[in-house]
Amino acid sequence: MAELNGDSPKHLRGKYAIVGVGETGYTRGSGVTTRKLGTRAIRAALDDAGLSASDVDGMLSYSYNDSTPSPTIAGDLGIRLNFHMDVYGGGSSTEALVGIAMGVIEAGMCDTVVVYRAMNGFSQVRIGGTSKRTKPSPLSGDSLFTKGYGYMSAGQWFSKTFMRHMYEYGTTPEQVAMVKVIHSEHASANPKAYYKDRVTVEDVLSSRMIVKPLHLLDCCVETDNGNALIITRVEKAKDLRQRPAVIQSVVGRCCKPRSDMHYQSGPISTVAGHYAKEILWPNAGLGPEEVDLTGSYDAFTFTTMLQLEDYGFCPKGEGGNYVSSGEMRLGGRRPNNTSGGHLCEGYTHGVNMVIENVRQLRGEVDDSCPIGADGKRKHTYEYRANGCRQVRDAEISANLGWGTPGIGSAMVMARG
């Protein structure tokens, strides 16, 4: 890998923070437009941060398939923009957008940036480009090189990587099913999760096959929702309502040598995190062993396993053992996706996982623990259904975003 300029991202360590987060409910049938979902999520984030519309002058969004452009959302909220950009991309967008927000503030183009995603991912446009009201999308653009060969969905596109890992390392569906089991345990204590019921390994393996080796319960939930993050300088964050989640390092859309036919260059069972970790950890000034909780993209159970492995949370080939060991369970060494993630809470292209880790670092996840006289939750650290999901003494988090096996983004945050 080419060496990065020694001047660069390290000098941004600890300089920026996420100061506000907001979301709508996770539903299947929001009954409103993505325009309204976006404005609701951003209003919630502004209120969370203690900011007004006039305090924001930058806006970034992930606008693939649906959503509503930034200038429209900004106008509805009374925000005048000095900078905006609507980005087309996969699930690696969230962390990359945070990095862009830091960059445009650093360049003096704006002062405070909202990053949002608004999608009716169940009731309108599904991730594969189809909806309840439209026929399958025609062959054009990149789909000329995928759909013609049967790659109609993410599961079909990624399954070769999953199968090869099983072949090379002896990874089993039973091991990887534990990702869904553990995330369902976490979701059972999350009042806003779409799926709150706990499942077993047998439940996963007995659900219908979608594309080998993925069963139905290995796949994420489809939902309608809006989510938002607010990024600004740490100096400004100190005067705001919430304890900031301070950004230590960001990797944006790091690629394998080829990102499309990624298996033509480098092992098919290796994903982009193998390369991204060489940026993420040195720029953060720490390593995976110092991380208290992770938010590893779980479009599928296997994506979580592969990323945790290639970012260095366990040796290559031992991902199956890692995810089935209980290490990433609440109460374990390093909990993962404590909201239930995409498999159980809702599908947001990774924004909800960043929101969850921000709240974890504040010590203020919205679980079922009692609220004291001071208005703050009194966490019991009893990890059961309808119980607590706050990680005790959480200080460092990592978010691992997934676009495809060949493209990934990541971010490390610290408690402010």
CATH topology of the largest domain: Peroxisomal Thiolase, Chain A, domain 1
At CATH level 2, the architecture of the largest domain is 3-Layer(aba) Sandwich
- Fourth-level CATH superfamily of the largest domain: Thiolase/Chalcone synthase
Poorly predicted regions = 1-6
Anisotropy-based shape: globular
Widest beta sheet: strand line-up = 3-2-4-7-1-8-11-10-9
Record the SSE blueprint.
Blueprint: E1 16-23, H1 34-49, E2 58-62, H2 70-77, E3 83-87, H3 93-106, E4 113-120, H4 154-169, H5 173-187, H6 201-206, E5 209-211, E6 214-215, E7 224-233, H7 234-237, E8 245-255, H8 273-284, E9 293-296, H9 301-310, H10 319-324, H11 341-344, H12 351-362, E10 396-404, E11 407-415
Helix pairs in contact: 1-2, 5-9
Could you please describe the fold and organization of this structure?
- This protein is α/β, with parallel strands linked by helices.
- It has two domains: 12-126 and 223-237, Peroxisomal Thiolase, Chain A, domain 1; 245-415, Thiolase/Chalcone synthase (Peroxisomal Thiolase, Chain A, domain 1), CATH 3.40.47.
- It contains twelve helices and eleven strands.
- The strands form two sheets. The chain has a nine-stranded mixed beta sheet with strand order 3-2-4-7-1-8-11-10-9. A two-stranded antiparallel sheet has the order 5-6.
- A hairpin with a 2-residue loop joins strand 5 and strand 6.
- Helix 1 crosses helix 2 (70-77) and helix 5 crosses helix 9 (301-310).
- The longest helix is centred in the N-terminal third of the chain and has 16 residues, at 34-49.
- It is globular, with a radius of gyration of 20 Å.
- The protein starts with 15 loop residues before the first strand and ends with a strand.
- Residues 1-6 have low confidence and may be disordered.
